[in-house]
Amino acid sequence: xxxxxxxxxxxxxxxxxxxxxxxxxxxxxxxxxxxxxxxxxxxxxxxxxxxxxxxxxxxxxxxxxxxxxxxxxxxxxxxxxxxxxxxxxx
Length: 90
What we know:
Elements: E1 6-8, E2 13-17, E3 20-25, E4 30-34, H1 36-44, H2 51-61, H3 67-83, E5 87-89
Antiparallel strand pairs: 1-5, 2-3, 3-4
């Protein structure tokens, strides 16, 4: 069985704004701003990348962050996105 892949929900509207990403959920009316790291993770939530691949990408792009910190941060972001109904798993 293959590893589940996180994917942004299709009805979520998002746009890059400088180094951040703005996310709008039309169902709830919530508007959020993602910081640089969370924005990069959001871009990778295309259903093509496994969690492991996302971790590897973030580690390679943000070299001053430890592997444990990347994993911990990613899990917190996934929990937040799931709680707010922004992502699914394939």
